[in-house]
Amino acid sequence: xxxxxxxxxxxxxxxxxxxxxxxxxxxxxxxxxxxxxxxxxxxxxxxxxxxxxxxxxxxxxxxxxxxxxxxxxxxxxxxxxxxxxxxxxxxxxxxxxxxxxxxxxxxxxxxxxxxxxxxxxxxxxxxxxxxxxxxxxxxxxxxxxxxxxxxxxxxxxxxxxxxxxxxxxxxxxxxxxxxxxxxxxxxxxxxxxxxxxxxxxxxxxxxxxxxxxxxxxxxxxxxxxxxxxxxxxxxxxxxxxxxxxxxxxxxxxxxxxxxxxxxxxxxxxxxxxxxxxxxxxxxxxxxxxxxxxxxxxxxxxxxxxxxxxxxxxxxxxxxxxxxxxxxxxxxxxxxxxxxxxxxxxxxxxxxxxxxxxx
Length: 358
Ligand code: IPM
Ligand code: MG
Hints:
Layout: E1 2-8, H1 12-27, E2 34-37, H2 43-48, H3 54-62, E3 65-70, H4 91-100, E4 105-111, H5 124-127, E5 131-137, E6 149-151, E7 158-160, H6 167-183, E8 187-192, H7 198-211, E9 218-223, H8 224-233, E10 240-243, H9 245-259, E11 268-270, E12 276-278, H10 297-309, H11 314-329, E13 332-333, E14 343-344, H12 347-357
Parallel strand pairs: 1-2, 1-3, 3-12, 5-10, 8-9, 8-10, 13-14
Antiparallel strand pairs: 4-5, 4-11, 6-7, 11-12
Helix pairs in contact: 1-10, 1-12, 6-7, 8-9, 10-11, 11-12
Bound molecules: 3-isopropylmalic acid (IPM) and magnesium ion.
């Protein structure tokens, strides 16, 4: 397996270093793979005039899997002026990569971690119910719809983005979600805003129709506002959630935080082939970059997802997940999930501990 390593910027490089320690530990246990690092830094804009250097483009195209850290704020990206067009923003390189590689199904599992009971902002009885996967559509919606942009003279400018879904885009994500639900507790909740948006009425209609081929899966539909509420009131009622790009972005942050920290949450972005892009769901967190306080576990658990989905190596994936739980049960905690009785460690120490467990 060829793995493209794309650390990105912000906390990306430091959490990626921990993921590499974990991969090295598996390598010395016999796992075979090749890695090659690819730059995709915000700084690449200044140096190369592009967020996605050609070499990186070629590398991610030919890799079997891409391990991605985080991308976001560079000096340019922090400039939120609307006339700085999307293609010049570093984070657009991530969106480009997701779309160019046809990685349309973004799986974001969220599961209660008993070792971290008490770190969740939820009441313990509710937190304990958490065991769901958000299947977020990743190639369409407001993220990519045209027309888009800001036009007009200052004072009377108009901003436009377009929520757009083609029927086949809804169909394929619905199939991915139904297939996953079939392997789990056979419950699928589709989240939309069909009461207001035509695009979302189409979404609901297509998901319902695809559902006819999966009679063994119980399908329910929720509007996104109600879903945000039910997620807090009754998290145990969710097994698989399928939703669009924007709602999935929002709800997956909410669900991840319900575990105790967004820093714990891995993801897999899959397409039609076996290729996948694996990244934690958090961003580049420039405010804590370089301070050795970021939680590397979302990144490390993304390696487990990579081994499971792109390599089909359930054993190696399980070893990583087991090592993470053992380290947590030894009391090691990064600052985001620190509680009384825990042992506060930094990013590097947490990575070392997980690698040592493996
Ligand atoms: C995510 C992130 C990205 C997104 C940003 C960094 C572009 O929030 O992966 O959830 O909005 O998809
Ligand atoms: Mg997000």
